[in-house]
Every structure is written in C-alpha cells, then in structure tokens.
C-alpha cells in the first residue's frame, strides 16, 4: 500500500470505503473546496492493485492560537481495517498541521455512539473536548481534540467535557473572521 493525494475522480471510486453506516458521506461538491485549498492534507491510501483502502479529507482553519487541523472524514474499507491505515492517515495530518500550517491542535467530530472510533482516537491521544447536542440531527456529536506543544506533538490532555450547541460552534467560527 502507498499514500497519494486525493484526486477529484476518487469520489467515483471509493464506495467500498463509504458503505460503512458510521461514515458520514456528502455530495462531491461539499468536498471540492477541501481538495482545491487543502489538497496537501487530503489523501488516499491505495493498494498496489489499485483499490482504495482508505482516505482522509481534512483542512486547516482558525487564526493564531486557534490555528488547527480538522478531520472532515477519515475512513478505511472493511477489508483493510486493522492494518494501521487510519493511524497512518491521522499521523500524517498531525505532522502536516504542525509543520506546514503551524497548527496547535487537531480536532474532529464523531458520533457519540461510535465507541470503536472513540476508543481509536483515545489511543491516539485525543480527548473529549465538547459534546455537541444534536450535531448529527438524531444524535449528539463528540468534539475530540489532540493538542500540540510548541509545534511538536504531545499526548492530548484531559479536560472537563461540556455540552455545547451547534450554534456555539457557528459563533466560534465567526469570531475568526
């Protein structure tokens, strides 16, 4: 397996990865700004036979101390799980967040009920930052975060998790502008 940049035509070839019911899937138009603006942190893990094994769609956002990487989607095809592909994709994002974008942390959202993903992220050093009420419409989302110290990676620190609304995040993002 090898990694490569995510290309536009990959949207038509990664259904084997996206059939997982816990993978949030959006229209390709949603992802296009990611590929054009943050193409260096959106990547595919591909088999030597040409199968898409997994992918990462991410972005860098926020000013100053709020500069960070954000995981929009990371998923691995069922037949390629337990091969450390997701870990490799996450580590690549963390390195690029700090070394290219000067980010102070990486965050992501996950369904509260997705215990496998939550455990995986905890093993990577992410902690539960906020519970976002009704983030997925039918379910709360968990905002997980891994902070870095002086541009170098360190294990995420545990803080008290609080409930926030989706509107709270909208206001937080507006304050960047």
UniProtKB/TrEMBL annotation:
It comes from the Eukaryota. Residues 147-167 are annotated as: Disordered. SUPFAM superfamilies: Acyl-CoA N-acyltransferases (Nat) (SSF55729). It comes from Aduncisulcus paluster. Signal peptide: none annotated. This is N-acetyltransferase domain-containing protein. Residues 152-163 have a biased composition (Basic residues). Pfam families: Acetyltransf_1 (PF00583). Residues 1-149 form the N-acetyltransferase domain. Keywords: Acyltransferase, Transferase. PANTHER family: N-ALPHA-ACETYLTRANSFERASE 20. PROSITE patterns: GNAT. Gene3D superfamilies: 3.40.630.30. InterPro entries: Acyl_CoA_acyltransferase, GNAT_dom, NatB_acetyltransferase_subunit.
């Amino acid at each position: 397996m090898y990694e490569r940049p995510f290309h536009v035509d990959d949207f038509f070839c990664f259904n084997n990865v996206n059939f997982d019911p816990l993978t949030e899937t959006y229209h390709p138009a949603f992802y296009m700004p990611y590929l054009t603006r943050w193409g260096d942190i959106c990547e595919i893990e591909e088999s030597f036979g040409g199968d898409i094994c997994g992918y990462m769609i991410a972005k860098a956002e926020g000013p100053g101390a709020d500069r960070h990487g954000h995981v929009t989607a990371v998923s691995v095809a069922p037949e390629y799980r337990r091969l450390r592909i997701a870990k490799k994709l996450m580590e690549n994002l963390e390195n690029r967040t700090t070394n290219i974008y000067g980010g102070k942390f990486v965050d992501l959202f996950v369904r509260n009920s997705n215990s496998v993903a939550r455990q995986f992220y905890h093993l990577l050093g992410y902690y539960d930052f906020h519970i976002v009420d009704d983030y997925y419409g039918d379910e709360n989302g968990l905002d997980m975060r891994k902070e870095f110290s002086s541009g170098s990676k360190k294990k995420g620190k545990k803080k008290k998790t609080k409930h926030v609304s989706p509107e709270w995040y909208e206001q937080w993002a507006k304050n960047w502008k």
